[in-house]
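[audit] Reproducing an earlier prediction to check determinism. Same input, same settings, fresh worker. If the tokens differ from the archived copy the diff job will pick it up downstream; this log only records the rerun itself.
[audit] input (341 residues):
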Amino acid sequence: MFNVAVVGATGAVGEQIIGLLEKRDFPIAALKLLSSARSAGKKITFKGKEYTVEEATPESFKGVEIALFSAGGDVTRALAPHAVEHGAVCIDNTNAYRMDPDTPLVVPELNIDKVSEHRGIIANPNCSTIQLVAALKPIQVRYGISRIIVSTYQAVSGAGSRAIDELLRQTRAVLDGNDVNPELLPVGALPVKHQIAFNAIPQIDKFQENGYTLEEMKMVRETKKILDDESIDVTATCVRIPVVYGHSESVYVELQNDYELEDVKKLLAEAPGVVLADDPEGQLYPLATEAAGKPEVFVGRLRRDLGHARGLNLWIVSDNLLKGAAWNAVQIAEYIAIEKQ
């Protein structure tokens, strides 16, 4: 049994983590639910018992053995070192430590062995990166990959509960013929806001000096780190769309060796955590509405590129709050629990 803390317990990902810990019957001796001062005092029920959410402070982690963070990078940077000092293993859903060379970046189906290299902190990849590499890793192992071009169609839940509320509010306003008054998206901290209802916003996170957004650069850097190949050319365009749950990705890859399409399908059908949904005649392909609430990564629309002999096109969909965040983190926690028994 373990003393567990969930940091960001009242957020969209935190709620999913708590639900999974209960559903999976994770071996918990004591549970701490932590948040910002603003959310402290809220009540959350876990296994029939009511817990009061506490403000997260450096002293909150005394006696904690596993801490799951999903409260933003600044919170992780401020509190995770204190949690480690108190003896906790931190599993972090933010960007704070992902590219730290001493921090393993883990997708359990692909590189769970990296957990043993941790120095107190294990990083969850970006939600869009997780589903991308889950589908591409078996292809890379068999054929090698030289280039990846990915365009994402990302659900508003990736921006938190407030973004879900904003989408629903704006949708009602448009349908009722009222003013939309955008308040949050694309980036809450920036002055310009855009309508998300009935729209597509080609900006997720802040723009960097090279013209790419931080979200796009996360995908570039994290994909190279997880696939363990800095030579792969990766480029991304990340778009926010009016979907509540489930990120979708249009992916083009150039392989290093010739491939057979049926063999690629077989690889994906057998890949852990991946579901092949690919039947054009039956109009079977991954949909965000069908991936929502499920822990797997769904792949379909596999087809040869028309202009490159080793080019391959795929469509990848997954629930961004589950495999893209909470489920990936709980999988890591379960592995740690087994190793410590």
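[audit] rerun output stored. Observation attached for the diff report: The chain has a mean pLDDT of 97.
[audit] end
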